Amino acid sequence: MIIFTSLPKCPYNISQLQEAVLPIMVICLTKGAGVLPDGPLNATLGGTMVFTTTLTPPEKPFTFVEWKFGDQSIISTNTNATADYEGRVTLFISTGSLELRNLVLSDSGEYRVLIIPQGGSILEGTIRLEVYGEQIFHFSTDLVEFNSSISLKCSASGISLSFLWLNSSSEVIQSDRVQLTDGGATLTIVNVTRYDQGPYECHVFNPVNSDTSEPLTLSISYGPENVNLNVKVSKGYYLEGSNISLSCSAVSRPAAQFYWLLNGAYLNDTGPEFKLVNIQMSQSGNYSCQAFNNKTLRYETSQSSAVTVLERISGTAVTPSTNLPIEGNSVNLTCDAAAGSIFTSLWKKDDSDLILTDNMALYEENRVLSFKSLNNTDSGKYSCEISNPVSNDKAQYIMIVKYGPENVQIKGPSKIDFGKTLTLTCSAESEPSATYTWTLNGTEIYSSSVFTKVITELSDSGSYTCQAMNNIAERTSSAVHQVTVTAILGETSGCSAGCIAGIVIACLAVCAAAGGGGY
Ligand SMILES: *[C@@H]1O[C@H](CO)[C@@H](O)[C@H](O)[C@H]1NC(C)=O
Ligand SMILES: *[C@@H]1O[C@H](CO)[C@@H](O)[C@H](O)[C@H]1NC(C)=O
Ligand SMILES: *[C@@H]1O[C@H](CO)[C@@H](O)[C@H](O)[C@H]1NC(C)=O
Ligand SMILES: *[C@@H]1O[C@H](CO)[C@@H](O)[C@H](O)[C@H]1NC(C)=O
Ligand SMILES: *[C@@H]1O[C@H](CO)[C@@H](O)[C@H](O)[C@H]1NC(C)=O
Ligand SMILES: *[C@@H]1O[C@H](CO)[C@@H](O)[C@H](O)[C@H]1NC(C)=O
Ligand SMILES: *[C@@H]1O[C@H](CO)[C@@H](O)[C@H](O)[C@H]1NC(C)=O
To answer: Which residues does the UniProt record annotate as the domain Ig-like (predicted)?
Structure first.
């Protein structure tokens, strides 16, 4: 918008202008008429002027007084000051004088007073006022970057005036956007930017004088831009119940107002700081902030920041698919937590990282350790650590693989003399330990691992079988051991007299039996 201010309208002619020397302003001669002295009156911009009548206060107050500027009424005894003069004028009713304050250049012109005394005839007078100075006029509405254009008008009275505009003390340079018109008096900035705020000064001069206006700074609204969401200690994952502090910033004039969004939907919160206290899993999502400039009416939204709230992992346990891990069977060990979301599972065996054999496999993101066919070497302490970015927990399971019996062995002599004690020891590899059953020639004779007997009969010879049994695995395995009883008398070395007597008695019984048997 361009505002053209009215320059002083002087009833001058060229010859008068040529005679004018100092000050540079045009002097307009006006004939004082009637109740006002001869003019013109000179005043400076921003100053005060009292238009004093030549009347002395009458005994009876005037019936009516009115002041006019050109054709426009300023104030009268019947009416208040009109809009342009509100607060700037005082009418002195006793003398009919007028005070005009805060003078502007456009106050230059002809003033007229009309006075009706009580019972008297109408009195009139006119006088000219010249206000001197330079003033930059501009329209004062808010300027918006990239949207507004503005014209600055340098207004001054005088002849052969030249104008020089300064922007922050540097001379204004014309461009597509910056135009000087009206003989340099008008500076037009098209499509203002934030850098155009000035301050601007207008320097007016002619060959004999010069003056500079007060500096004028433009208020240009811009932004918001560079809207940035900051998260203190940003990690993306938060433990349920923790507090999060978000802040938002933007380049904006005037300062932006901030709104907060979760997954693109507005929250009730506003302001540059946003706190989430005792955050719950349901508050997980993408947070962003939006900046709004209520002058430019522009919005801009920040990048979004993902917030994932996780429950603390607790109640972790390793559960086997069977309580009886038997060799050759398959078993799954499942690691799980009662609460909390699991991101990773890590298995260890006997406190070392688990080395997967062909027999093992991991399923369900490592939560299930599966054995295809158990081996007794798979026994051990299995521990599992599960974790998410905010917590972790551990559990362990001791797996004892039930196997065997295997490798059944019988230890003992294969030949034995009469009267000696036969001791046969049976062993087997088994988990749990095997139970043992002895048979001689197929007849069960004893059940325990160590079989002892004093040899008294030839029929103690034979096939001694030890059967080992794993009651859990319900498996048996056996070994056979041949024992021959030898009947050589008196050749026993290292035997005491009593011992020999015993053998003899035994021999007698055996021999008798043998004899009876047909020897
Ligand atoms: C104002 O300036 C901006 C940036 O220089 C440009 O994008 C925009 O189109 C201009 N607007 C007008 C009306 O010239
Ligand atoms: C005013 O000066 C600033 C800073 O040098 C410059 O960026 C801007 O374009 C100037 N504006 C005008 C209207 O001269
Ligand atoms: C416009 O924004 C400014 C700065 O944030 C604020 O002070 C002012 O109250 C706002 N005006 C309105 C009408 O909302
Ligand atoms: C959050 O943003 C990410 C990446 O932009 C997207 O994959 C995800 O689906 C978003 N989450 C929600 C809840 O919208
Ligand atoms: C800026 O200009 C555009 C297009 O001319 C208009 O739609 C918008 O309302 C203007 N914004 C302001 C704040 O004046
Ligand atoms: C072990 O888990 C795997 C994969 O889930 C499954 O295919 C298999 O049947 C399970 N075995 C047992 C013994 O539960
Ligand atoms: C077992 O068999 C052996 C040889 O076949 C025989 O000498 C022995 O007398 C038998 N013992 C019993 C108790 O049957």
So the answer is: 117-219, 224-308, 327-401, 405-486
